[in-house]
Write a sequence for this structure.
């Protein structure tokens, strides 16, 4: 036998609606989203996101792989320029990032194209 669908307990909803923290959070939420509707920064982020979404999957992979390689190499350069940690483990995280970036870059090849032999 099926149970009737659960509905909100009105007493719980009223208690939460009356809570000061919930009202404050709702007020902050309304203010932030209201300000974001008229924000040039939010407009720029939305335009960048739309531009990213309009790229082909292969181009997105290529860009993401390039960014990962750049991040790993930058980390290696800054670490080497600042101070070497004892041992070799300091190189492992950036090397993994660069390796993952190379894999993503390699996977960005369009179907039907092969790397030169």
């Amino acid at each position: 036998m099926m149970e009737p669908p659960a509905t909100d307990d009105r007493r719980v909803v009223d208690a939460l609606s009356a809570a000061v923290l919930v009202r404050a959070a709702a007020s902050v939420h309304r203010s932030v989203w209201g300000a974001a509707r008229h924000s040039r920064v939010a407009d720029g982020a939305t335009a960048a996101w739309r531009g990213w979404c309009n790229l082909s999957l292969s181009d997105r992979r290529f860009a993401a792989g390039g960014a990962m390689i750049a991040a790993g190499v930058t980390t290696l350069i800054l670490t080497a320029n600042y101070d070497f940690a004892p041992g070799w483990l300091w190189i492992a995280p950036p090397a993994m990032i660069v390796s993952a970036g190379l894999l993503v870059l390699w996977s960005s090849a369009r179907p039907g194209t092969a790397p030169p032999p």
The mean pLDDT is 83.
